[in-house]
């Protein structure tokens, strides 16, 4: 018995203030060969965790530092944009939501294995 599950995509904006030292406190995966970028991990104690709106699995659509749309950009380009960002950073993310909450598990699509951690080079979490 095969059951197909329809997902509903919801897009929303998340705004963070990037600290002078450190990053936004999340890691990305994907972005190779035009694949989507997804939030892979949220660092404990970081800006993203303290805010609480960004979730693992969210798809990154746009980074509004200068209104740059990241869909289709390479992983490296998006990493560069986020690392150079200063002050307020607005992300537009899309989240897959099951129409019914009766499922006991979830699976995420296979993504490229590249990661981006917004922590600074000294390894400190934001």
UniProtKB/TrEMBL annotation:
SUPFAM superfamilies for this protein: PDZ domain-like (SSF50156)
Source species, domain of life: Eukaryota
PROSITE patterns: PDZ (PS50106)
Domain PDZ residues, every copy: 13-97
Stated name of the protein: PDZ domain-containing protein
Region feature Disordered, mapped onto this chain: 103-126
